[in-house]
Amino acid sequence: MHDRGLVCSLGASYDEFTLNAEFAVNEGELACLIGPSGCGKSTTLMLISGLLPLESGSITLFGSDLAGTAVHHRQIAMVFQEYALFPHMSVAENIAYPMKIRGTKRAQRQARAEQLLELVSLAGYGKRRSDELSGGEKQRVALARALASDPQLLLLDEPLSALDAKLRSHLRQEIRRIHDQAGITTLYVTHDQDEALSIADRLIVMRDGKVVQSGTAQQVYHTPNSHFVATFIGEGNTLPSTVIASESAGANQVIFFRPEDVRVHLGEIGEYLPHLSFAASVVERQEFIGGRYRLQTRWQGHTIICYSARPIGTSTLNLSVRMRDILRFDEAKS
Amino acid sequence: MSRGRSKVEGAFYRRLALPALCVIALFFLGPLLLTLSSAFVTEEGRFSLSAIVEVFSNPYTLRVMRFTLTQAALSTLASLLVALPGSYLLSSYSIRLRPVILALTAIPFVIPSILVVLGFVIFFGNNGYLNLLLMRLFSLSEPPLRILYSYKAIILAHTFYNFPIIMNLVTTYALSLDRRQEAASYTLGASKRRTFFAVTLPRLLPVIISSASLVFLFCYSSFAIILVLGGGPRYTTMEVEIYRQARMVGSAQGAAALSLFSIAVTSALLVAYNRSQRTHARQEAQSQPLLLQRRPAKALARALALLYTIITSLFVLAPIASVIVRSVYGPSGFSLKWYRQLLGFERASSHMGTALAALTNSLAIALVVSILAVGLGTSLAASIQRRRRFGGALELVGMLSMTVSSVIIGLGYFLITARLKGGSAMSYLLVVMAHLIIALPFTLRVMLPQYRKILPVYANSARTLGSSASHAFVAIELPLLKGAMVSGAIFAFAISMGEFNATLTLASSTIVTLPIVMYRLIGSYNYQGACALGTILIAVSLAVFVATSTSKGTTHA
Q1: Cβ neighbours of B459 (radius 10 Å)
Q2: In Å, how far is A156's CA from the nearest CA of chain B?
Q3: With bands split at pLDDT 50, 70 and 90, how would you rate the model's confidence at B553?
Q4: Contact B471/A149, CB-based, under 8 Å?
Q5: Chain A interface, mutation test: which of B1, B464, B468, most A Cβ atoms within 10 Å?
Q6: Is B465 in contact with A97 (Cβ distance < 8 A)?
Q7: Number of A:B CB contacts under 8 A?
Q8: Contact at 8 Å (CB) between A46 and B2?
Q9: Which chain B positions have a beta carbon within 8 Å of A78's beta carbon?
Q10: Do A5-232 and A237-330 come out as alike in CATH topology?
Q11: Domain spanning A237-330: CATH superfamily
Q12: Rounded Cα–Cα distance for residues B294 and B296 (Å)
């Protein structure tokens, strides 16, 4: 099913760290590799690009095995966290660099460079030097340069991490737009879950050098396959499974549910579908997060987070969550 | 985290180190092993420890060893005594003259020793400018200062030459220290005095030790100064004795046995220097200096600062200026006679007659040396920087020739020439290679820090855009290294132009370079001729000085 796209089975070991990751990305997809820092995201990109040696496993891109191919013959472009614009070249020269290596004629190079600058909304920037650009502009030039090498696969290593919050959310839409226009299969590394959720066709969640789950944003968010994934992507409430009366004590299980699935009752909890109720939860804090209120409550020694459209005037609340919105996991390791 | 490269990548950088490693093995380790092994071989070709036993039992050589260590210790102590108060003054008060004084103290780093000797004689000599000035000021009939050709002269020359080095290193380091720790000490109730001794001084100690051991090393292996100012076998040091044994007594075995001892001492000193340097680099890593206001100078401090300006310029600038003045202004007034002789427009006496040949030789040798040094230095630096596991070992190999004094390097080459019959072409080749071996560690030291500033991600980026490893090196890294290559080349050029010790030790009398002719002119009391040649060396040193002080600002972070 994955013969059109990227299929990886990566094995490599370093001092105190072993990477053993398997995943696939379909043709034309924008996949986000996400995980806590130190989980091996950047190393994965280095292995795919060939900048680090693969010890075992394989990398298959559109049906051909790349493990023995030199970096510069892989047709995999990479945008680095530091952008790495060559400081001794102008913007246009930077973008023309990969075309020059392939022996593209000068006139064609210039035309293509202008076209790419237009694509990244930087028309007319060709003559500038890289130290005259802002962070966001450098990022877009680095993207244009990577696209100029006509890659089969584009790797982006935390491309927005050096930018401020407002620019980040604007640029991630830009990256999505540029990806859709260029149609290149893309693997995007980030540690920012909002960024990943908003931009990706596919999320690949990593932990300790392994891929723990891969799927669409909705799949990963609504049906996480482990407590780690559930808490890493989005916010959630974790309680021991013993709070459900019918469950036997001693089973090393936890229950998990999202704050938005918690119903806030100003009065008594009425009769409705099967649910778990948390009567008389004490409101410890409420903060306005724009559009709604985030409540931190305490129920029998457990913290429960939920949302309310209106500010809460009372000190205790009745909360409930429907049984079908509750997930069960083995004892949380983290 | 992302600094590593694949095995394919490593191959290119591994090959890059090969030329430099071959040159070091063939032209440094080879001659050195030859030298050291001849300490154990008698003239009849049999193994014997007699030379070593002789060296360590002969009262004369024992006296030489003792004198060498004593004069180095005294010179270092004197340099510290002159330098440290100056450093304190410059780093704790805001003094307007500070940049000027610091610039002056950087000069001795780039001045060849033969020039120091000449400047010392011209300025402090019995008929020197200082004596002339004092005689005119106090209407004396006799020169009041008679310091040439004595123990005093050696210590003084070493002090004048080396105290600026300590002052420069300690002050620059003290200025870069994070002063928040002093501020913290004040807020905890410590007085200024207490803070200085409890907080500031302990942090400065490593740099004081490392600069002192560097100066000790310089004084220990000092050659030209002792040769000219020592005035004979009474004040002779190890280096001079090695030269004398090899070239005058004709005892290669004795010279080799002395070299063994000398290398042991210099290696120990370099290890001490390296270790103390690493400690202070580690202790003060990544501290952003806080720009606390320094104390405004009081009248006393201002006066002392002025005094230091005068002292440093007197000892650093005056001898150099004297050389330039003396080259055109003799007892019979202004004259360009010596330059006309130098350039061959006017017939000249014996030594001056070879001056033009010496000038062209020196320029040609220095040109070849600088090209080779930059080529080898760049490729070695790349290999050191981009090879994770062997980088440290490679750097050590590149710096290896610093552990051996240039006289001993010259001795190795002399022993080779004694066995080869290659004529003057071969001799010039050996001079070039000796200069290259001496210049390479310096070129490497200039280039490595610049190379470290080039992020590996540039080359990585070029690789993913389609460049081969070698293309990425040539198209991306080399252009970014341009500044470092230029300063490395200038450094190598200047070292070769001023190189005296190895050249004198290895070369036959038919080979002339600028410093060699200067030495012969000084020996035959033709000071004005020597000064004309010296002025050319000053110009070269000035170029290095300018290059090193401007290259600091032009790097791509």
Answers
A1: 24
A2: 12
A3: very low
A4: no
A5: B464
A6: yes
A7: 89
A8: yes
A9: 460-461, 464
A10: no
A11: Nucleic acid-binding proteins (2.40.50.140)
A12: 6
pLDDT in the model for residue A15: 78
CB contact under 8 A, B468 and A70: yes
Domains of chain A: which residue ranges?
5-232, 237-330
Residue in A225, A214, A216 with CA at minimum distance from that of residue A8:
A214
Q: Of B99, B91, B102, which Cα lies nearest the Cα of B297?
A: B91
More confident residue, B351 or B531: B531
CATH 1.10.620.20 is the classification of domain B1-37+336-557: no
Cα→Cα distances B9→A51, A52, A53, B142, B457, Å: 8, 9, 9, 73, 14
Where along chain B do its domains lie? 1-37+336-557, 65-284+294-323
CB A278 within 8 A of CB A239: no
CATH class of B65-284+294-323: mainly alpha
Confidence of residue A114 (pLDDT cuts 50, 70, 90): very high
Per this entry, what is the length of chain A? 334
Predicted interface score ipTM higher than 0.95: no
Residues of chain A whose beta carbon is less than 8 angstroms from a beta carbon of chain B are: 42-43, 46, 49-53, 70-72, 74-78, 80, 82, 84, 86-88, 97-98, 101-102, 145-146, 148-149, 155
Residue with the two structure tokens 């614009």: A85
Total residue count of chain B as it appears in this document: 557
CATH number of A5-232: 3.40.50.300
Residue with structure tokens 């029998």?
A300
